[in-house]
Amino acid sequence: MTSPATALNRSRWSRLTSYGLLALVVAYLAGTAGVAHGSGYTQSLILQAAIFGMLAVSLDLVAGMTGLYSLGHAGLFALGAYATTLLNQAGWNMFLLLPVSIVGVGVIGAILGMLSLRVSGLYFAIMTFIFTLVVNVLLSDLKFTGGLNGIAGPIFPDLPAGLQFFGSGLVWVVALLLLITLVVVWGMRSSAMYPVLLAIRDAEPFAAANGVRTAATKVGLFALSAGIAGMAGWAFSFLGYISPGQFTWTFSVNILVMVIFGGINTRLGPLIGAAFVSAFPVVIQIDPLVQELIFGLIFLLVIVFFPGGVVGLVSRAWRRFTTSPHHPPAPAGASAAEPVGLGELPTDGAVARTSTSRPDDYVLECSAITFGYVRGTKALEDVELRVRRGTVHGLIGPNGSGKSTLVNLISGALKPDSGTITVRGDHIERLGAAARPARGIMRTFQTAVLVKELPVRENVTIGLYHRTRNIAARSLIWPLLPGSLREHREMRAASDAALRDAGLPAGWGGARVADVPHGVEQLTQLAAARVGRPDILILDEPLAGLSVGEVEQVADIVNELRDQGVTVIIVEHQTHFIFSVCDDVTVIAAGQLVTSGAATEVRENERVREVYLGQ
Ligand SMILES: Nc1ncnc2c1ncn2[C@@H]1O[C@H](COP(=O)(O)OP(=O)(O)OP(=O)(O)O)[C@@H](O)[C@H]1O
C-alpha cells in the first residue's frame, strides 16, 4: 500500500514536473518567437539546425533503439525535399505535400527496413549507403531534377494579414514539426515499448519469446524514422536551392556523427549533435581545410574517450556526483558459491511426486518430431513428448542430446522438419516464437539474454508485452494518453511483485542487469517469464551457475508454480534436482527418445543409467 508520505511526495513531484514542463513549453515558444522575428541569416541558421535535429532524432530512433545503423537517411531526406519541390512545381498544394512526404518516404523506409531483416550490422549500413548513393546519382543525372545545379525550392508563404505579428510562418511550422518529432520519439522512450525496443536490439530471442513480433516492429520503426526524415526534407525544401551536393553519402555520415557526438540513444544527444554540426562552421570561421581537420579531430576524441557522447559524459559525471556506493542485499543463498554436484542420479531421497491430473490430460504433445540443423543430420528423430497439465516435467539427457533443440521447437524459435506440436489439442508447430505466449507458452534461456543497460525491473516488464493491448501503436502518443502513467506504474508494480516472488530482495529491481551477479540474471528471466502468467513455463537449464541457496529458491518457485496450476518443463543436468521436483521425466540421448514416464520409474530405468551416466 502507498503510504500517505509517499503519495504526498508523488503529488508534489508530479506538480513540480508539470511546472517544469510548462516552463519548458513557454521557453520553447519564446525562443521560437525570437527566431521568427530574427534576421533572415539567423533564421536560416536556426532552421537548418532544427531540421538537422529532426533528422538526427529520426536516425537515433533506429540506430540507438534498435541498432540499425542507417546511412540511408541523406537519401530519404533528399526524397522528401525533391518530392516537395517537384510536386509543388507540378501544382500540388505545399501543405498537402507534408503528409505526402511523410507517408511516401515512410513507405520507402519500410522497404529498406524489410531488407534489414535479411542483412544486419555492417551489411545493413553498406546497403543503406548504396541507397543514398543511388538516390544521389539519380538526382544528379536526371533532367527534371535540375541535375548537379539543383532546383529552387518553393517559397513558404507569409502568415495571413491578421497573424503577421507572429513573424516568420516557416519558423513556427518547423518549430511545431520539431516539437511533434520530440513528443513522438521522447514519448516512445518513456513508454512501456522502450525496453521492448532495446530487447529487439540486444536480446532478440528474449523479445520474441515474450510475444514481440520483432521483424514487424523493426520495419515499422524504420518506416517511422524514414517518415520523419521525409518531413525534415519537406521543411528543408523551403530554405532555398536544393541540389544533390547537399544529400551526399558524407551527409549521411554527418547525421550519424550528430547522433554519436551528442550521445546515441539519449533524449538530448541528437539535438546537441545537430546544433554542434550546424554551428561549428559558423563559429569557427577559418580555412575550410583546417576547419574540417579540427572537426574530425574533435569527433575522433569524443568517439575514443567519450563513446557515450556529450550526454554520456555529463550523465556519468552527474551519477558520480550524486550516487552513493549502495549495493542491494544479496538474494538468499547467493553467498554460498558452492555449486551443486552434477550428474548424480539419486537412488534415494528424491520423493516421487504424484500429480492430480488425469493420466491422459496432456496440455502439450510433441509427436514424431524430427529436426536437423544441416541437411543429412538429425538433431532430433521421431521424438515424442507428452506433458500432463499442472505437472512439473523434467527433460534430461547427456550433452548434445537435443534438449535445447526440443525446447526451441516448442517455444517456436525453430520449426520441425516433420512431426506435430499441439497445445490443448491445437497445432502450433508452424507458429512463430512471438505467437507462443498468446498460447500460454513462456520460456527462459540457458544463458540469460536480457537488456544489460536496463534495470532488472524494466527487463521484467518485457514479460508483460503480450498481455498489454496495442502497446506498439500506443507508444507513439504514450505521454498524451490519459491512463498511460497509471498503466506504466501498474506494470512496474507487477514486475516488482514478480521479482519478490522470485526471491529477489527489494533493491535489485533498480539495478542495471550489467551490474548484477549471474544468479540475479537467472532469477530476472524467471520473473519475466512468470509475470506473463504462462500456462506452460519452460525453463532451459535454470540452475546453470547458481549457488546451493539459489537452487533451493528455484525449487521453491517451481513447487509454487505447480501449486498455482502452471505446467513446468525443466531442462536440467542436475538430476538430483530433477528427480526431487519433477512428477514426470523424459530422457533423450543422441536425438532419440530413451524413455518417458513417472519420475520414480525413470529413475530406476537401467537404460537411463546406461545412456545418461555411462554406467
Ligand atoms: N545452431 C546449431 N547449428 C548446428 N548444430 C547445432 C546447433 N545447435 C545445436 N546443434 C547440434 O544439435 C545437437 C543437439 O544440440 P542441443 O543443444 O539441442 O543439445 P542439448 O541436449 O541441449 O545439449 P546441452 O546439454 O549441452 O545444452 C548437437 O549435436 C549440437 O551440436
From TrEMBL:
One Pfam family recorded for the sequence: BPD_transp_2
Keywords assigned: ATP-binding, Cell membrane, Membrane, Nucleotide-binding, Transmembrane, Transmembrane helix, Transport
Segments crossing the lipid bilayer: 21-39, 45-63, 94-115, 122-139, 165-188, 219-241, 293-314
Residue ranges constituting the ABC transporter domain according to the UniProt record: 364-615
Listed InterPro entries: AAA+_ATPase, ABC_AA/LPS_Transport, ABC_transp_permease, ABC_transporter-like_ATP-bd, LivM-like, P-loop_NTPase
Location of this chain's protein in the cell: Cell membrane
Gene Ontology MF: a single term: ATP binding
Main localization category: membrane
CDD domains: TM_PBP1_LivM_like
Membrane topology according to the record: Multi-pass membrane protein
PANTHER family attached to this UniProt entry: CONSERVED COMPONENT OF ABC TRANSPORTER FOR NATURAL AMINO ACIDS (PTHR45772:SF9), CONSERVED COMPONENT OF ABC TRANSPORTER FOR NATURAL AMINO ACIDS-RELATED (PTHR45772)
Protein name (record): Branched-chain amino acid ABC transporter ATP-binding protein/permease
Native species: Gryllotalpicola koreensis
